[in-house]
């Protein structure tokens, strides 16, 4: 390894994490899972902390299985604890359509303009729906103990949008520990930062 690169990694080690994080993580695991077209995939996480949290970014490490254009959207869902699946989408969390044909593992993410607000200590699901080509998600393993993964494909297509609460109930558990992430900060911290910036501008 180049000595300068080694020094860089020692000073700024990659962030290996998933779920709700305070900064964008590095690739999560060397293994991959397969996602066919017109499927919604979701994984369950608990929002850390207490109080109201703002989400500034949502993403997933993946690659196209071929150099073919794929279209995708992200969303965050509340939890259906009875059926262990997503319930309803969180306000402002549905992203605009994105596209890629990159067949190398990359971070694909969207930065929110109007930030969704979540509650600390609460369970949510990070989700993606796509069409165009089979995707390979970066994953650590397929025996997920920290979260809970599932796939929904019955009665839905990308063009009809994410599953409804009822449609999510018909799903296949996959238990995969994939590289979904969402960057969060408390609303109190965000307010304090804005006040500091305003003070610096005087």
Word description of this protein:
The chain is mainly β and about 200 residues long. The protein has a single domain (about 15-200), classed as Jelly Rolls. Helices cover about 15% and strands about 45% of the residues. It has three helices and 15 strands. The protein has helices spanning about 5-10, 165-170, 185-200, and strands at about 20, 30-35, 40-45, 50-65, 70-80, 85-90, 100, 105-110, 115-120, 125-130, 135-140, 150, 170-175, 175-180, 180-185. Strands 1, 2, 4, 8, 9, 11, 14 and 15 form an eight-stranded mixed β-sheet that branches. Strands 3, 5, 6, 7, 10, 12 and 13 form a seven-stranded antiparallel β-sheet that branches. Strand 5 and strand 6 (about 85-90) form a beta hairpin. The longest helix is centred in the last third of the chain and has 14 residues, at about 185-200. The radius of gyration is 18 Å and the shape is globular.
Give the topology.
Blueprint: H1 3-11, E1 19-21, E2 31-35, E3 39-46, E4 52-64, E5 70-80, E6 85-89, E7 98-100, E8 106-111, E9 117-119, E10 123-131, E11 135-141, E12 149-152, H2 165-168, E13 172-173, E14 177-178, E15 181-186, H3 187-200
Parallel strand pairs: 1-15
Antiparallel strand pairs: 2-11, 3-10, 3-12, 4-8, 4-9, 4-11, 4-15, 5-6, 5-7, 5-10, 11-14, 12-13
Shape: globular
Report the sheet-strand fraction. 35-45%
Named at the architecture level, the CATH assignment is: Sandwich
Could you tell me the number of beta strands? Answer: 15
CATH topology: Jelly Rolls
pLDDT averaged over residues: 85
- Helix count, DSSP H or I runs of 4 or more residues: 3
Radius of gyration: 18 Å
What's the structural domain tally?
Answer: 1
Order of helices and strands: HEEEEEEEEEEEEHEEEH
Summarize the amount of helix as a percent range.
10-25%
């Amino acid at each position: 390894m180049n000595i300068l690169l080694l020094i860089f990694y020692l000073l700024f080690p990659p962030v290996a994490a998933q779920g709700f994080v305070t900064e964008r993580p590095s690739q999560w695991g060397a293994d991959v899972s397969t996602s066919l077209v017109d499927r919604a995939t979701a994984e369950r996480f608990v929002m850390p902390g207490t109080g109201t949290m703002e989400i500034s970014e949502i993403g997933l490490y993946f690659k196209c299985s071929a150099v073919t254009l794929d279209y995708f959207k992200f969303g965050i869902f509340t939890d259906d604890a009875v059926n262990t699946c997503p319930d309803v989408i969180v306000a402002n969390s549905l992203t605009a359509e994105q596209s890629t044909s990159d067949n190398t593992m990359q971070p694909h993410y969207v930065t929110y303009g109007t930030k969704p607000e979540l509650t600390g200590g609460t369970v949510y699901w990070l989700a993606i729906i796509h069409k165009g080509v089979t995707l390979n998600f970066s994953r650590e393993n397929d025996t997920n103990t920290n979260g809970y993964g599932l796939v929904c494909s019955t009665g839905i297509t990308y063009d009809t949008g994410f599953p409804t609460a009822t449609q999510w109930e018909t799903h296949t558990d996959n238990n995969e520990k994939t590289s979904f992430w969402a960057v969060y900060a408390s609303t109190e911290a965000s307010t304090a930062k804005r006040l500091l910036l305003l003070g610096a501008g005087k």
